[in-house]
Amino acid sequence: MRELRACWSALADRVESATPAHRDRTLDALRALAILGVVLGHWLVTALTEVDGALQGASPLARMPWLAPVSWVFQTLAVFFLVGGYVATRGYGAARARGVSYGAWVGQRLGRLFRPVAAVVALWAVVAGGLLLGGASFDTVRTLLRLVWSPLWFLLVFAALTAATPLVARLNPLWAVAVVAGVDVWRFGFAGPEWIGWVNVAAGWLVPYALGAAWSRGAFGSRRPVLLLLVGGVVATAALIVWGGYPASMVGVPGAAVSNLNPPTLAAVCFGLAQCALALAVRAPLARAMRRPRTWAKVALLNLSAMTVFLWHQTAMMAVTAVGLLFGGGLPGLHTAPDSAGWILSRLLWLPVFAAALAVCWSAFHTQENPRARGRRSSRIVVGAQVPAPRGPHASLPVPTAGKPEVSRA
User: Fold this and answer.
1) Cα–Cα dist 390/109, whole Å
2) To 10 degrees, the CA torsion angle through 367, 368, 372, 373?
């Protein structure tokens, strides 16, 4: 135990020394919190149950609607887009100042974003084919693929907004809010076609992305605009839920007539605004926490593998579920229906097992995200972890999720 603590202390010290003094560590902290929110949220509200010999997805929110506040804590995608808009806008400005072309800038960022996707898509294509050949039902395979690949919509939207950064960097977020409101009025007030709702996939996530761009221009330099955004977002969300008929859950619920997330509704956008305001409001305490070397090291190392964690966390959960089925199934919180408080308590006990399975996935696939981790010559190796040496005013540990600039070799 002492040796492990000594190794961790040494690693934390090296990460601290590799981080430039001018780096805004709160960005990494917010991104790490958003990642953990997505992962834990999926693990807590997603279940696999067997119905007529086939696996089907289920959610405790469908049976226990009083759990809706859980989705308020773990639906953190707006923070992803907030940080992404901030970093992309700053990064594009810095690239232009260095004479880097738009094509080179966007190619670097999109390449870093999609490089680790190939592994998860290829693996699950093979797994799906093997399951079908082995006699698994089509419904089972479809359920598994939906759980693995459905989060990839985030990457497509994020990539589109990243590519459009020069166009949207100075867009007032209120314009995108107005589009979302107009689409919802058409859909729900005038019985418009359902397909029009998918306009909000772009407009809805453009709101926090444009908010991040505004942040990069100094729009939230004082507490007053942050407080106004927080109060306005909370009041608007509450009003839309109580009097507007929107669902209380901020994630999709199987069987529900309306989802706040697929596609995003005005309630989800207002909630995201409040969430982004809260993120902006806690910058000072986050900055103080990030000055502790051990705390900062955890955040920095998580950001090194942000995409790997995001892409493989559902696979980790399903792997544990499958192994449990091999031993007879019926395990509480893993194979049973999510319809009671007992299921919740049991699911909480499975979270460390899911985390261990995710660690196995990380060890196998993190080099897809950071190719430099494959060889000692291309980066510094510190107690078994890769800690590249930063350069430039915005250089950082590589964080593909938010399109951070590439770091230099050691």
Assistant:
1) 17
2) -10
Is residue 251 in a domain? yes
Domain count, the chain: 1
Is 118 within the bounds of a domain? yes
Q: Are 171 and 236 in contact (CB under 8 A)?
A: no
The CA distance from 177 to 203, in Å, is 7
- Let me know if residue 407 belongs to a domain: no
Residue 167: how many CB atoms within 10 A of its CB?
9
- In tens digits, the chain (410 residues) has pLDDT values of 777 778 888 888 898 888 888 889 999 999 999 999 999 999 999 988 877 777 888 899 998 999 999 999 999 999 999 999 999 999 999 999 999 999 999 998 888 888 889 889 999 999 999 999 988 889 889 999 999 888 788 889 999 999 999 999 889 999 999 999 999 999 999 998 989 999 999 999 999 999 999 999 999 988 999 999 999 999 999 999 999 999 999 998 888 889 999 899 999 999 999 999 999 999 999 999 999 999 999 999 898 888 899 999 999 999 999 888 888 778 899 989 999 999 999 999 999 999 999 999 999 988 888 766 554 433 343 333 333 333 333 344 433 333 333 333 32
Domain carrying residue 315 = 2-402
3-state secondary structure the chain: CHHHHHHHHHHHHHHHHHCCCCCCHHHHHHHHHHHHHHHHHHHHHCEEEEECCEEEEECHHHHCHHHHHHHHHHCCHHHHHHHHHHHHHHHHHHHHHCCCCHHHHHHHHHHHHHCCHHHHHHHHHHHHHHHHHCCCCHHHHHHHHHHHHHHHHHHHHHHHHHHCHHHHCCCCHHHHHHHHHHHHHHHHHCCCCHHHHHHHHHHHHHHHHHHHHHHHCCCCCCHHHHHHHHHHHHHHHHHHHHCCCCCCCCCCCCCCCCCCECCECHHHHHHHHHHHHHHHHCHHHHHHHHCCHHHHHHHHHHHHCHHHHHHHHHHHHHHHHHHHHHCCCCCCCCCCCCCCHHHHHHHHHHHHHHHHHHHHHHHHHHHHHCHHHHCHHHCCEECCEECCECCCCCCCCCCHHHCCCCCECC
Token pair 């950082």 in the structure block, residue: 396
Q: Is the residue at 317 inside a domain?
A: yes
